[in-house]
UniProtKB/TrEMBL annotation:
Residues 139-205 form the WYL domain. GO terms for molecular function: DNA binding. This is DNA-binding transcriptional regulator. The lineage of its organism: Bacteria, Bacillati, Bacillota, Bacilli, Bacillales. It comes from the Bacteria. Residues 8-60 form the Helix-turn-helix type domain. Keywords: DNA-binding. It comes from Paenibacillus ferrarius.
Length: 324
């Protein structure tokens, strides 16, 4: 048996008995008693609350509350879970209260040294993310359950920014958190096609008894991204766009969700993209404005001309406002 197998065997023997000695463990597992001591030390270092009683009736036992804990995590695993919980909480994870309870349990079952380390790592990481309100968290929970149970939902959905709502029946295939918003992706029975709906625009929701079958290998994430990223038309000639500038600014530009699929080549101080003219005219100049003088357009002339026009219009607008 491997070391891990022996340690798990010791753990289960401790869980199944009130108290057991190192000699009894060594006999049951057919290993040296010194090896038992080493494994006991390793389990303690991993956060298992083992109590060692000396004397005639002494031996090893587990702290009573640990019997409810089925898993053992080392320090790095505990740290990773707590950091992941911080991201989930800030993203409006629908089971935030249960997540907090799970983290509290994790801390309860660790030893004092690991608890001190965990608290240090927890204090050193913060996540800033717009949190969903309480009503949206309830909706997210209902949608998540409907997704898991393949149940149709009936919703009153607000279209756009008006007050008018529209009744929809949706077979929810998945939930996606995208750019600080939660979306439910599924088959809309009214339109008879797969669509995405913002959860914060759902004004009422009821789960039906009707079941559905989710398409095999369907990805809600891929569907949503396909809807927001520019479509690539192979019949349209793409225009070469070259941007030079500071390395950090180019890193940020190349990593933008709108541009990732258009990047052709990247050097330390230059990025080469290929994109449709429509994207260059409608979106790209306004994105480049946010980088100020940290980048410079090499080509095409069209993009340079657009940037000049946009900045002139901005200057004229604010210059006129200053005179009023």
């Amino acid at each position: 048996m491997s070391k891990a197998d022996h340690m798990l065997s010791i753990l289960w023997l401790l869980k199944s008995q009130r108290r057991i000695t190192a000699k009894q463990l060594a006999e049951k597992l057919e290993i040296n008693i010194r090896t038992v001591y080493r494994y006991i030390d390793a389990l303690c270092a991993s956060g298992v609350p083992i109590i060692a009683d000396s004397g005639h009736n002494g031996g090893y036992s587990l702290l009573g509350q640990f019997n409810d804990a089925p898993l053992v995590f080392d320090l790095d695993e505990q740290k990773a879970l707590i950091h992941a919980a911080a991201f989930a909480q800030e993203a409006g994870y629908p089971y935030g209260e249960k997540l907090s309870q799970a983290i509290a349990k994790l801390k309860m079952y660790t030893n004092q040294d690991q608890l001190r380390q965990i608290n240090l790592h927890e204090q050193g990481l913060d996540v800033i993310h717009p949190q969903a309100d309480a009503s949206e968290a309830v909706l997210l929970q209902e949608v998540e359950v409907a997704v898991a149970q393949s149940k149709t939902i009936h919703v009153q959905y607000q279209k756009g920014y008006g007050a008018v709502t529209e009744a929809r029946e949706i077979d929810p295939y998945g939930l996606v958190c995208w750019k600080n918003k939660w979306y439910v992706v599924g088959h809309c029975r009214l339109r008879n096609e797969i669509r995405s709906f913002r959860v914060d625009r759902i004004r009422a929701l009821d789960t039906r008894d009707t079941s559905f079958e989710r398409p095999a290998d369907f990805s809600a994430r891929k569907f949503l991204l396909a809807g927001v990223l520019p479509e690539s038309d192979k019949s349209v000639q793409l225009i070469s766009v070259k941007i030079t500038g500071k390395e950090q600014a180019l890193d940020d530009l190349c990593g933008h969700w709108f541009l990732v699929h258009t990047l052709v080549e990247r050097t330390q101080f230059e990025a080469h993209f290929r994109m449709e003219e429509g994207a260059i005219r409608l979106h790209f100049p306004y994105l480049l404005l946010t980088y100020g003088g940290t980048i410079q357009i090499k080509e095409p002339p069209l993009l340079k001309k657009l940037m000049v026009g946009i900045t002139k219009n901005l200057y004229n607008y604010y210059a006129a406002a200053e005179l009023d």
